[in-house]
Please model this.
Amino acid sequence: MSEKSNLSSTEHIKMKSDGLRGTLKESLKDEITGAIREDDRSLVKFHGMYQQDDRDRREERSAKKLEWLYSFMIRLRIPGGFITAEQWEALHHIAGAHTTGVIKITTRQTVQLHGILKSHVKPTIQAFNTAGLDSISACGDVNRNVICAAHPKFSPLHEQIYAYSHKLSQLAKPKTKAYYEVWLDEKPLSDKKEEEDPLYQDRYLPRKFKIGIAIPPNNDVDVFANDCGLVAIIENDTLVGFNIAAGGGMGATHGNAATYPRLGTVLGFVPAGEKVYKAVYEMITVQRDYGNRSDRKLSRLKYTLDNMGVEAFKAELEKRCGFDLEPERPYHFTGRTDFYGWHRNHEGKWYYTAFVENGRVHDDEQLPLKTAFLEIALLRKTNFRFTCNQNLIISDVKEEDKAEVHAILDKYGIIACTENATPVRKESIACVAFNTCPLALAESQRYLPELMSKIEVLMDKHGLQDDNISMRMTGCPNGCARPYAAEIAFIGTSYGYYNLQIGGDRAGTRLNKLYKESLNEEAILTELDGLFKKYSENREAEETFGDFAMRENWV
Model:
């Protein structure tokens, strides 16, 4: 357990914050600056937002002796990625009124909006509240958005499993009423005992905590990249429980060998029902009590698990649960892809998965996504589901309404875009990076589509045009696009330069490894040209690129 005498500055800010209130109200009233007070920048994360600035305009602003162009990113808490048509309509209009206009689908099955000026933050939150949406604990040192297998076609038990994401989200939601007081103008509590929080206490967690729920055979949530991963075990068409894994996490720091990506370790099996909630809750308390609070780079659960040792961690978890975990049950993952186009579930409802490149929902001359999705929402005949691969599912469409929805998708070119995009492009994922992320060292979402066009030429050259190699890009090593679990990853080291990593598997059960450091575009394409040539000429039947790379000992 962390010594109180050796706490990071963030720990002190949390403990003296008055339940995450800090001086946020005062910061918002300060019209002299577009920023908020320094300590409040840590606290506002717990309310689901980050203070950012337009990094494309830093030099221009500095040259004119102007303050950087500060704004805020707000991320929603949407367990399992499900929203109604009414909520999509609200999201559309909120994005248009208060943000850059782009609706960004994240790799955690939710959305975030960028470019919100300080004066617009409160109206934005209030508008979301009216729509039945919130951003509570979407960021910060708490449990983040709980993700769950997106597509109902996988199992008739999908809705039963999906319900766990909601209950877990509520279970791990902070008790403080600060969000309601600061943003929604609710009266302060007369008795603060009403918000006493046995889970988070006054110190919350050492860092963020992520929960993912997968339904085999598809691992679309990258379940082992989460601090806590739940793998649904279905026997004789019945959900019997979950294998529970601990210690996944993608973040690392260049040049710091003490940091590393890690896939979760399966600890055992938990029967369906209340024991699942108890096990997850107590896993969070173990991390709360044993996690590193002095060095935030070493504070995720993966480091706690490795420092304690898996068996000691499991023993502590079982002690707190009051029951032993059962032996792991068998399961099998075959891939992580989204299932594009129309698919039908066991109830006869239809679902259309639309390809949204790198999760950017906006209108352009070629593809007016926002307009199309709004028109569908206005029908009031569908719901919407976000995937962890940054795509959008038009969901719960009745047979008699399918043709009308299809006609809209066709009219705006979404069907053509989804069908004509190459398999490798549809497998690609990118983080936000420039121009808003303060941690970005290189481009990502703005650049990856351009790079993919050049990679597609190489793949076509070597007869690989139908191969769905998973490729992911991040602007820094923190891993928001889960790059270390890809077959090929590009991880930013400086502007225009990336580490090239290869060797992950299609199912998300093996990390890739560093192949070459700090390559520019020309060097990346040269290396991939050679690797694709060897792969196309020497692979075995059905052998994937990642498996081939490992068999050839390229890394």
Q: What stands out?
A: The two ends are 37 Å apart (CA to CA). Residues 533 and 555 are 17 Å apart (CA to CA).
